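hey m, so remember when u said the tokens were messed up on ur end? i reran from scratch. heres the input so u can diff it against urs
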Amino acid sequence: MKLNIKNIVALISLAIIGLIVVQVIWINNAIDVRKSQFDQEVKNSLVVVTQNVPKVIQQNQETKFFQRQKQMNNGVADFNAIIDAMLDNTPFKKFSDKISKEQLDSLIKKEMLKRGINTPYVFSVFDKSGSPLFTQDSLTKSFNDKLLSEGINIPVYAGDFMLTQPFISIIFPKKNNFIFKKMWLILSISLLLILAVIYAFYYTVNTIHKQKQLSEIKNDFINNMTHELKTPISTIQLACEALNDSDMNSKESQDTFVEMIKDENSRLKGLVDTVLKTAILDKGQMKLQKEELDLLTILNKVKDNFSLQIQQLNGSITIQNELPEMKFEGDSQHITNVFQNLVDNAIKYSSHSPEIKIITAQTIDAYLIRVMDNGIGISRENIDKIFEKLYRVPTGDLHNVKGFGLGLNYVKSIVELHNGNISVKSTKDKGSTFTISLPIK
């Protein structure tokens, strides 16, 4: 089954979308796994914390015992101290009186850092009914509901089995940021891969589109070239046959046919030279024979060359110049060809009598030459393509416009080789203005 370009693009698009979807799913799964690992590390840390809580409580009780013993020895012990001493080792003693929030925080922070968890957290200890056992600060109070609903919970089992059975609950407000920081490398690589795939898709489709356009342009070029070459070849053949005809032996007839052969041969040479010049430009092998020129002299020469042809079409060509001279360093032949191409196009792409104006001006560092015509103009969708090699603007009702689509590409190349630039403004059916800027010597 033969696939056209649309089908190929559709298949590539489906493949790319599938790859991106798989990559996104993989990233989500990787993040979920990382979150599960994080939660498990937190639980492991809290388990160790609960194992160390009894040790801290015991140390606190021993400290209190020695303090009370000292007070009793000094005869200053009061009734409350005696009651506290009696309750120290009983389940009736409140958990918050056995260990401080600061001590519990120190234990948690120590275990978290051991496992590389250095993101801010909020914790509290609740009894079986969900009431906080510590005197809460304003920050912790605002998180109480979230601690009970979303927090990671671990029972403390600090000797309070008969009554409260307290549990530690902890949450990490910046958990996602912490996980993304840990995964930034793999996430960045995944994102780069996705962008690379999208760019590869764009580049592939763009290349296919350009290749298709190039194929069409080359086919048009071959057709145009075949047509252009067949005409002078046919004319030369007819002239040669006429010269061999005994009825055409007069000197006048022979001179006519010889001149015809000479003209058609020159035309063939011009066609071949055009193609060869373009090939040389493409290879970057064009060597300019630069010399000091006067652009005004070249423009007047171009005007004189086309004057007779334009008069036959009942048109006009004028030069508007107020500059005393336009000294320029460049290749005389190629600069002349540039302006001849523009004037020739202005004549060919005119649906009625051509009116051509060549206007000169000067800026601080450049000469400006504008070639204006009243031709058929260039549509907006074609104006960005006219300097491309082998591209020919559709001529509508004009069927006598010949060429290979190489002229304006040649013009642009020669102007740029002289460190200048060319631009165009055009309105459909109202004409075009080509502006060439060439640096002052």
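this time it looks ok to me. Residues 5-73 form the longest helix (69 residues). if urs says something different then somethings off w ur setup not the seq
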